[in-house]
Every structure is written in structure tokens, then in C-alpha cells.
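Q: What would this chain look like folded?
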Amino acid sequence: MATTETITTGEGHEAAALLERTRDAVNPELRRTVESLPGSMRRVAMYHFGWEHADGTPAAGNAGKAIRPALVLAGAQALRGAADTGARDGDGVRAAVRAAVAVELAHNFTLLHDDVIDKDVRRRGRATAWTVFGTPDAIITGDAMLALALRLLVQDGHPASAAASARLATCIIELCAGQQADCAFEQRPDVSLDECLTMAMAKTGALLGCACALGALYAGAGPDEVDAMDAFGREAGLAFQLIDDLIGIWGDPGHTGKPAGADLIARKKSLPVVAALTSGTTAGKELAALYAGPMTGDDVHAAAAAVERAGGRDWAQAHAADRMGRAVQQLSRAVPDLAAAGGLLALAEFVTRRTK
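A: My prediction, written as C-alpha cells:
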């Protein structure tokens, strides 16, 4: 599986086009919703999304990849919910735009909080919001974004809005439990691989699964199809996290916007690291010794090499491929003709072959 080179496959091009269409569809509503925030919260949020500089002047920034809202819209398209009403497929997808915006707001709530928790100083190529506006404003703005997400769904006139808002709220509780476990792991010398996989499924897989499920709900799908779409997103989300963890160790700072080996510097118990630490190898023991103290520049390079020699890198790549296989099996339960789910498959391929 490619993890260090630019994707040029047909799936990669299709995903890039889908993400661009998603941003075009979602960003106007997303911006209108963010602009409804009062005073300083609006300013922090506008900066975080890249629409303004810290002084409030306009910026042509980067609001993110839009993977999660793309999953909502692609899920709605795949289930062809518009067919029941005689509307065109495009009309059915447009009906799910508010759900897509809600998922993106919920995702950015987590990003604002994660940056504070992890003390990350860079996001999307510039200073994180908490380093610019302070920790309290960043946390409070994140809280407000989550409230906006739920309000957007509750006030939506779509028949699925109530079920969607309940599902998103449940997902956020699970996501917070995953984040709490992730933080607790940093204080523990021993973390099992099963524990780490469970944490990653909650922290990352849950929201991707929710995004796919919301697309299915807005397509008028039944409970079995909605659950299958959720399972597809969860499995793809775990594959996404595995690749994200690899990028956190070996990613190019010019692409990631973060220092080389950022996860190692923070001594995070990421999946490749835990696979290495529990490998029973000499390299795994070397990594444990490095993780016992603060990381210098040389230590970061030594730790990355130890993860690789202990098999953590190969395991993460192989497990990501395995999880994607499971994801496709789940998707086939909801969409037996996978040709109708081309957008979802392209996005899944994209997130497990991305390099940044």
C-alpha cells in the first residue's frame, strides 16, 4: 500500500473531484452557520476554518479536506433516496447538505479541542487557534460548534433530522470516550493492541460511520442499511486512523503542517507504536526505553527506526488494507450493486492511500 507518494490512481482523481464538489456544496452553508456565532467565538471559528486572519481580515485559507461531509453526500447518493419521491439524484443529495455541514462542524469541534489537549501548535499550515486566541476561547468555540451542529439538524425540516441529531449526539459521546482513553494511554506504560484498536474505532471510526449513516438516513434507507453504512464508515475510519498514525511518524512536514515525527515527540501511543511496543522484539524494547523519557531530535529518528524494525509500520499498512476489505463487505450489505457506491469507494480508497 502506498503511503509515501502522491496518489495518481483513477480512484484518487475521482475522490479529489468529489471532495471539491462537496466543498462547493457545503462551504456556503457552513460559513453562514459559523457566521451566526456571536462576537469572539465567530472570530476564532473564522480563523480556524481559514476564512480570516487573526486580526479579522479576510483570508483565502484552507477549511479542510471535507472528507466527512463528502461521506454524507456520497452515502445519500449511493442509497438513491431521491428515487422514492421521483426527484433527481442531485436533489436528494442537496437535501443532505445540512447534515453534511453538521458533521463537519462536529469534526471541527474535535479538532479545536484536540489541538489544546495535544498542545499542537500547527494546523492546516498555520498556528492553531488556541495559540492565537488562548485556550479558553478555543475550547469554548469548539463547544459552540458542536451546539451549532446539533441545532442545524434539529431545525432541519427533513424527515430524518430527528434520528440524525440523536445519532450524532450518541456518536459524539462515543468519540469523547475514545479521546479520554487516548489521553489515559499516555500515562500508562502498558497498552494492549486491542485496547488501542478499540480507542481508535471510537475516536475516529465513530464519526466516519456516523457520516455514512446520516447520508443513508437522509436517503430514506431502512435500519439495516443505515447500520451497514455505519459499519462501513467505522471500518474505513479505522483504516484512516492507521494511515494517519503512519503520517504522524513519517509524514512530510511540508504536507502535514506539523513537525516531523510529531506523534513521537508527544510520545503518543499510536497504533504503529503500540504494535511495535507489544512486538516482543529488541527494537520494541528500544522504543519503550526511548518513550520513557523526553524526546530529542536524535531520539525521534531513533524511535521511528525502532517502530519500523519492530514491524509497526508493516503491521499498520497491512491492517489498514484488512480493515478496508471489511469496510467493502459492510458496504455491500447496504448497496449490493457496488457500482452505485463509486463515490464512497473512491473516498475510502483516498483516505487509505493519502500521504498528508
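The beta strands are 122-123, 126-127.
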